[in-house]
Amino acid sequence: MELWQAALGTLNPNPTDSCPLYLNYATVAALPCRVSRHNSPSAAHFITRLVRTCLPPGVHRCIVMVCEQPEVFASACALARAFPLFTHRSGASRRSEKKTVTVEFFLVGQDNGPVEVSTLQCLANATEGVRLAARIVDTPCNEMNTDTFLEEISKIGEELGIVPTIIRDEELKTRGFGGIYGVGKAALHPPALAVLSHTPDGATQTIAWVGKGIVYDTGGLSIKGKTTMPGMKRDCGGAAAVLGAFRAAIKQGFKDNLHAVFCLAENSVGPNATRPDDIHLLYSGKTVEINNTDAEGRLVLADGVSYACKDLGADIILDMATLTGAQGIATGKYHAAVLTNSAEWEAACVKAGRKCGDLVHPLVYCPELHFSEFTSAVADMKNSVADRDNSPSSCAGLFIASHIGFDWPGVWVHLDIAAPVHAVSVPSSPARAAPTLWLWSCQRSSSETFCVCDLASSPLSPSGLILPGNREAAVCYPSLASLSSAGGCGSSVSPIPTLRSSLG
After folding, report:
1. Dihedral sign for Cα atoms in the order 250, 254, 255, 260
2. Which of 47, 260, 440, 501 suits a disulfide with 196, CB 3.0-4.6 Å?
3. Relative orientation angle of helices 72-81 and 117-138, to the nearest 10 degrees
4. Per-residue pLDDT reduced to its tens digit, 300-351
5. Which residues are CB-contacts of 105 (< 8 A; sequence separation ≥ 6)?
6. Taking a C-beta distance cutoff of 8 angstroms, is the pair 120, 437 a contact?
7. 187 and 108 within one domain
């Protein structure tokens, strides 16, 4: 207990702080005492960073997350991000023993009673979706090409009992998908439009999620430079996020019609590549003069949202994309940009981002002032703006919206995740772990103080602990699994039925 109190006394989170314990067998880390109104109350981004830097090495590790009930979901997703699935480090393949990380939640404050098993299942589904998306984003294009991405979609479809619809290569051209076909026609692996459709009985509305799946972006003939091209394996982040979210939503029993639309292509250079000055006919029936082949994401998404509107009859269309470098300037590395024709949905996206830790901030929606940037003398529009100083991220999103029409009565939401897709996706450690999520419920005693037994008795050491800043609770632990047998700790502990979900 003296060791624990000494560690607590050294912590001064500004915004975070940590202290090693017991010859580095454990670490206690503190989150900010408070966050600003545009941050998540969970301080989720700090959690991911702390785990990567503070978690001691070892084959079996334990994280105890002390938080209030509303912060559990965001905290679980943040922890999952700290353990990416993809690695080609040679040492990882030689390990004989699989790494595991046990995550335990210690709930304090209000609503700290037992949590329902359905909530645990939600956490498992969400974190599995996060790690699925991260694995696809982290995998380089020599492995994650359009063929491989279609295999990933088919695997999820098989798991959910859904047969994907796939339109590919020359069929795209024949059926009028000039955006997807034009972007991907020069690549070795042909472009594709793929759709997973969930249509339950009793659905009252139809929602479509459309993801940009550029598996690699050279920029095409408007080629990127040597410093801006590395990292373009992440340009499929929108489609990867849609796939992970779709799997999680369906496994949670989504009750309305939900379609996941994947616009897959590799923006490559070759004899058949699209040239600046070429004109493409898109699925919307509108023509586009190409003045920048590196503005390709909006072309594939224009086909995707038009298909969602015309063929799927969507009432709500959300597209997600690593669309513009300007997004990072407009809303920063940690806040995705949201552009929508609905003030209600704009507010809902911001609120959801604060709850789940995937932060969102609005862009200006004003087509009457911005869409003129795409004026063409020979086609319905160009694909890149005339003035890069005039809200380019908003303009890029408006290009997509124009292919369903600014007078369309449904809800359209565009999320630009260009910067957030990699702000927390690159691990600082090569360790590959397969976390198992545990959620325990512990109710406060009248003393408002918790003490768990000696660190040396922990079967799971080395371990790590994260505490919210300035809490009234003190927790000394080896693992909450031993709480129920820790005599004299003054706490009332009731482990709920445990859901164990291997994420490796």
Report:
1. negative
2. 260
3. 30
4. 999 999 999 999 999 999 999 999 999 999 999 999 999 999 999 999 999 9
5. 64, 65, 67, 72, 75, 76, 438, 439, 440
6. yes
7. no
Helices (H), 357-391: 367-370
Task: Report CA-CA distances (Å) from 102 to 26, 304, 467.
Answer: 14, 40, 16
Q: Cβ(280)–Cβ(288) under 8 Å? A: yes
d(CA 108, CA 68): 5
59 Cβ partners below 8 Å, 6+ apart? 97, 99, 100
* Predicted TM-score (pTM) of this structure: 0.87
Confirm if 486 and 452 have CB atoms less than 8 A apart.
yes
Q: How far apart are CA 66 and CA 466, in angstroms?
A: 6
Q: In angstroms, how far apart are the furthest CA atoms of the chain?
A: 81
Closest by CA position to 330, among listed 384, 393, 423:
393
Amino acid code (one letter) for 329? I
The token pair that represents 368 in the structure block: 């009457």
How far apart are the C-alpha atoms of 263 and 181, rounded to whole Å? 10
Mark whether 81 and 148 lie in a shared domain. Answer: no
pLDDT band for 188, please (50, 70, 90 cuts): very high
Per-residue pLDDT averaged across 177-186, rounded?
98
CATH number at residue 21: 3.40.50.10590
Instruction: Let me know if residue 256 belongs to a domain.
Output: yes
Q: Are residues 242 and 391 in the same domain?
A: yes
Q: Is the link from the previous residue into 20 a cis peptide, with omega within 30 of 0? A: no
Q: Compute how many other C-beta atoms are within 10 angstroms of the C-beta atom of residue 217.
A: 27
Contact 336, 418 (CB under 8 A): no
Backbone angles phi, psi at 328, to 5 degrees: -65, -30
Task: Give the active site residue among 52, 224, 251, 255.
Answer: 224
Residue 63 to residue 413: CA distance in whole angstroms: 36
| Phi, psi for residue 223 in degrees, rounded to 5 | -70, 145
- Give the residue numbers spanning the domain of 63: 1-115
| 224 catalytic per annotation | yes
Annotated catalytic residue within 298, 382, 432, 471:
298
